[in-house]
Amino acid sequence: MRRYRLDGFAGTSSLRLERCDVPVPGPRQVLVRMRAWSLNHRDLLIAHGRYGRDVLPGLVPLSDGAGEVVRSGAEVTRWRPGDAVVGLFLPGWQSGRPRVDRALGGSVDGVLAEYVVFDEDAVVAPPSHLDFAEAATLPCAALTAWQAVVELGGLHPGQSVLTLGSGGVSVFALQIAAAGGARVIATSGSASKLERLRALGACEVIDHARTPDWGARAAAWSGGGVDHVIEVGGAGTMRQSITAARVGGRISVIGVLGGGPGISPVPLLRKVLCVQGVQVGSAEMFRAMNRALEHHRIRPVIDRVFPFSRAAEAFRHLESGAHIGKVVLTAE
Length: 332
What we know:
seven-stranded mixed beta sheet; NAD(P)-bd_dom_sf; Zinc_ADH-like; ADH-like_N; Alcohol dehydrogenase; oxidoreductase activity
């Protein structure tokens, strides 16, 4: 079989395609023939050595992938050959208190290989209406958006939600929030992307390139501040996100796409804001999200699909920032 490794952290040039034996599952494991994979901004940070955590050379990259079980260990009871499955970003977090010590494609090997062994409880069944390429987009971006918007954000009809940009988490947050009856405001610096975001369900769109004070614009449109901001920019956008939020509102901190200076805690105190970091989600959340996606017939937004052998090209496309939604690889 073929798999990719990162032999260093110099970016896309560090990706190496190699051949190796197909792994053998243990008694409580399943062997999955991977049919599709998707990329996240995290994968770029890791490839460039900017992730800031214990990641070693030789890592098999990517956290997100979907495929079919081809072999089960002797003690496996949940799965049988032919079952479609999606891997968990955090294989140790089944439910309850977060367990974030093991993350695929970071602290442990990821899934950018033609065959991968998973513990039987480290995979879930995908929504029945999705194909493998669509299912592969769910483990990181979709589940992160679900936890932020629904599990922590208490999504309800009429709630106002602000999403930033057109990356995977933001687009999933828009789709999920709109399906739940929320009024979604979306930002982008591209007119064509804003048009697409409106078509996906945004009630209002803001061109942040032309409106530097987009936080105040969002607050005014929502009648005094939005209930919930899905914050993916980090220090570069946090000040505007605080401005956008209502008194007593929530900011879910998910990404660090933009750099910038630190912020004073005073505005947080004055507006009595709840600011919470979000780290993907558990298996229990994943199953709940899949039921909701299936019920509402929500389909992931896939920007481009590349064959497995062109993984480096897929990385470069994601890095260009030209995408809307997800960048996907499929088996050849």
